[in-house]
Design a protein that fits this description.
566 residues, BirA Bifunctional Protein, domain 2, YbaK protein, nine-stranded mixed β-sheet, five-stranded mixed β-sheet, binds zinc ion
Length: 566
């Protein structure tokens, strides 16, 4: 490709709307252009990256035994009513009506459609398992689209769905997809971690996320330095804390202290001149099984998903002011476990280890100090009910400690179970000729997001540093002076020769533009081409050219005709 013909409107200045590196650099390198909020054009350089990411995904999915198909974007309301999601999906679902007033949505995921395909086409257990995938445009009406193609309203995804007649078969395919995803992200040249995750809105059972590591990542990843277990902040399991045997012994009795208008942990601990780690935070929740007081250390946060699980509750929400006043006999901000009645008390594992604690006195403008677990109060249940923090003990091995890094979610694999097949009455006939709901798995990769995450992980002050496998071009040939006949002749020959090599056909960018070489090299670095071949007068004297590596900055002089790539 000759750069003089390439549509790559690079920008000298940082665009003001871009908050993250990938957004800024894709705009500056002329890879994407915004059409509307969260809606982007992929210009040729950007689309070459998307194409390469998709190609690797497609090759590995095909190798895994999955079959590619293509489902429509336009999905009728009826199948979404069957799954029950039309009513619960909310405003993120783009809904439209046709001229006959029939309602449709623009697909954000395709569980409904694929389940209807299975219902129509798979009759017998003998046809299972089957894994079907597509690479297609999805729609989600994000409340606040941001970060360029990282969080947008129209985006490209690979989604696949597997159908099984047994849990064992699902487990096997889940493992197959896990291995396939590892191969995909390895081939893309990205550093990543696989973390245990919360299933969220899609529901179902076990799930794992593939996270590309980047300091700028939106999400925290907790990983054990000893056993390698990794999990999102939501689901990182915390090991139990050893309770000191003599907690509370030898302490002065607990006493009430006036804390006028001091309600928050920060206010109270500052006022009492104690650390937040000495405070026992008390939150009142309502569940279908009754009210619950959840206790965590002052510097910790209750993880409602964990609390729900521990309680076996379906419905859990923070109690309103009235309920809190009824239970604690005090206004909001003064709740504590001492003397609390008519409510189940659930304490985090750490709470019994707090010596000399402070907490609300269940009385307006008062707190208690010198509180000891076991002496002044006891919990009905003790367990892991909070978000992990740096240094917490890993639950998996029970000895390693959590370190925290950041990442960007690019893939997610789920064991769905029968959630959709039961609701949509999608069944097959088993060995005994009995109808059974399909057991399902689903597996997604954000294609555009992966490209953006690759930039978040690989860039410097000069621009993008693409991993070789997904760089828009592999090599750039840059003559120092376009009006120098010899340089141009050598450059054109190198361009022509390299282009005949199968692995480089269509992968060589020839910077034939007029202008200063400094400007040209700046553009090539911004775009992130892995290798530059620079043809200048100094090298040519000895029949050599400069070959420079974008990532390391290493430069070597190579004889013309001996230029080689790995
Ligand atoms: Zn561990």
């Amino acid at each position: 490709m000759k750069m003089s013909c390439l549509l790559s409107p690079t920008l000298r200045e940082d665009p003001s709307e871009a908050e993250v590196a990938s957004h800024r650099l894709m705009l500056r390198a002329g890879m994407i252009r915004k059409l509307a909020a969260g809606v982007y054009n992929y210009l040729p350089l950007g689309y070459r990256v998307i194409y390469k990411v998709s190609r690797i995904i497609r090759q590995e999915m095909n190798r895994s035994g999955a079959q590619e198909l293509l489902m429509p974007t336009l999905l009728p309301r009826e199948i979404w009513e069957e799954s029950g999601r039309w009513g619960v999906y909310g405003k993120e679902l783009f809904r439209i009506k046709d001229r006959h007033d029939h309602e449709f949505c623009l697909g954000p995921t395709h569980e409904e459609d694929i389940t209807s395909i299975a219902r129509d086409s798979l009759r017998s257990y003998k046809q299972l398992p089957v894994n079907l995938y597509q690479i297609q445009t999805k729609f989600r009406d994000e409340i606040r689209p941001r970060f360029g193609i990282m969080r947008c309203r129209e985006f490209i995804m690979k989604d696949s769905y597997s159908f099984h007649s047994s849990e064992e078969s699902l487990d096997k395919e889940y493992k197959n997809m896990f291995d396939t995803y590892c191969r995909i992200f390895d081939r893309l040249g990205l550093k990543y971690k696989v973390v245990e995750a919360d299933s969220g809105a899609i529901g179902g059972g076990f799930s794992q996320e593939f996270m590309v590591l980047a300091d700028t990542g939106e999400e925290e990843i907790f990983y054990c330095e000893s056993c390698g277990y990794a999990a999102s902040r939501e689901s990182a399991g915390i090991g139990e804390y050893a309770v000191q045997k003599n907690v509370g012994q030898g302490l002065v009795p607990c006493r009430e202290v006036k804390t006028p208008d001091k309600k928050s942990i920060e206010e109270v601990s500052a006022f009492l001149k104690i650390k937040p780690t000495q405070m026992i935070k008390t939150l009142i929740y309502e569940t279908e099984k009754g009210a619950v007081a959840a206790l965590v250390r002052g510097d910790h946060d209750v993880n409602e998903a964990k609390l729900k699980k521990l309680l076996g509750a379906e419905d859990l929400r923070l109690a309103d002011e009235k309920v809190i006043e009824k239970i604690t006999k005090a206004p909001v901000g003064f709740a504590g476990p001492v003397g609390l009645k008519d409510v189940k008390i659930v304490a985090d594992n750490v709470v019994p280890t707090i010596e000399d604690g402070a907490t609300g006195a269940n009385r307006k403008d008062f707190h208690l100090t010198n509180v000891a677990y076991g002496r002044d109060f006891k919990a009905d249940q003790v367990g892991d009910i909070r978000y992990a923090v740096h240094g917490d003990v890993c639950k998996k091995c029970g000895k390693g400690k959590f370190a925290v890094t950041r990442g960007i979610e690019v893939g997610h694999i789920f064991k769905l179970g029968t959630k959709y097949s039961k609701k949509m009455k999608a069944t097959y006939l088993d060995e005994n000729n009995k109808e059974q709901p399909f057991i399902m798995g689903c597996y997604g990769i954000g294609v555009g997001r992966t490209a953006a995450a690759a930039i978040e992980q690989n860039h410097d002050k000069d621009g993008i540093i693409w991993p070789e496998a997904i760089a828009p071009f592999k090599v750039a040939v840059v003559p120092v002076n376009n009006s120098d006949e010899e340089q141009m002749k050598v450059a054109e020959k190198i361009y022509a020769d390299l282009s005949t090599k199968p692995e480089l056909t269509g992968e060589v960018l020839f910077d034939d533009r007029d202008g200063r070489v400094g400007v040209k090299l700046k553009d090539i670095d911004l775009i992130g081409i892995p290798t530059k071949i620079i043809i200048g007068p100094k090298g040519l004297k000895d029949g050599k050219v400069e070959v420079k590596d974008r990532k390391t900055g290493n430069m070597r002089l190579v004889e013309i005709g001996r230029i080689q790539f790995q």
